[in-house]
Amino acid sequence: GKQPLNTMSDGSNQKDFIENADGSLLLDHKGQPISVDKFLSTKPLRKEVSTRQGPGGMKLSYMGGDVITKTLNEAFGYDGWSLEVKEKTQLDPMKDDKGRYIVAF
């Protein structure tokens, strides 16, 4: 039978897929629509990951808040998601090799 409007061939709803700014579906390299779940489970682009020295000379990798915000806006649309801090823990301050304090949460 005929599929309802906005339903994909696999039975999923179109709202479960990432849209481009013009409203068209974002497609992968095979021309298939990219689901929100797939989009959020993919590894970030290497250029979006920053590194810094952490406590004890450890190398820490992180993504800046602007990259996270951009990714969530692309997945859920502007104002389609929210953030809630559930817990905050401060680690013991340390000094780096230049005598500066490092405070991590």
What would you say this structure looks like, in words?
With 105 residues, this protein is α+β, with helices and mostly antiparallel strands. It has two helices and four strands. It has helices at residues 36-41, 65-76; strands spanning 50-53, 59-62, 94-95, 101-102. The protein has a two-stranded antiparallel sheet. It has a two-stranded antiparallel sheet with strand order 3-4. A hairpin with a 5-residue loop joins strand 1 and strand 2 (59-62). The longest helix is centred in the last third of the chain and has 12 residues, at 65-76. The radius of gyration is 20 Å and the shape is elongated. Residues 1-7 have low confidence and may be disordered.
Give a quick rundown of the structure:
The protein is α+β, with helices and mostly antiparallel strands. The chain has helices spanning 36-41, 65-76; strands at residues 50-53, 59-62, 94-95, 101-102.
Helices and strands, with pairings:
Elements: H1 36-41, E1 50-53, E2 59-62, H2 65-76, E3 94-95, E4 101-102
Antiparallel strand pairs: 1-2, 3-4
Structural class by secondary-structure content: alpha+beta
Distance between the termini: 55 Å
Mean pLDDT: 76
Number of helical elements: 2
- Characterize the overall form: elongated
- Which stretches of 5+ consecutive residues score pLDDT under 50? 1-7
What are the main properties of this structure?
two-stranded antiparallel ribbon, elongated, disordered N terminus, alpha+beta, 105 residues, single chain
